[in-house]
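Work through this protein:
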Amino acid sequence: LTALPNELAVQAALLRGVDLSWNNLEAFPEALFLLVSMETLDLSHNRLAQLAASETKIARKAKPSSISAAYTIRLGGSGLIRLTKISLAFNRLKAFPKILAEMPALHTADLSGNPIPEIASSELNDAAALSSLGLGHREVGP
């Protein structure tokens, strides 16, 4: 896959887990923002170099239980407020994705295998719910 159709969100809005690993995605699929029940997302082994283009879609600092699906979609917000686990392993990320700090329920993030040279403590402080961060197998170099 190189893209994900928006129709997926309409046909499968109640999906709780999505595995898009081992594809050729270069951008974060916009359709994922409409999956309001999604709790786990695997985007490992793709070609994602950044997630910044998608940052404005995140429902900022909302409590997962306080926003209904209809309200979230109407505001153009994100079902990612319920996301608890994300794998971005083995992509092309060169920095800690700030979008992760905007996901209020996220407790596990795997960034293994990305060329991220360092992560500032301030970036982790903003990700209050994050309790597990995978950074193994990073090939950082010139």
Strands lie at 17-19, 40-42, 85-87, 108-110, 132-134. The longest strand covers residues 17-19. The helical segments are 7-11, 69-74, 121-126. The two ends are 30 Å apart (CA to CA).
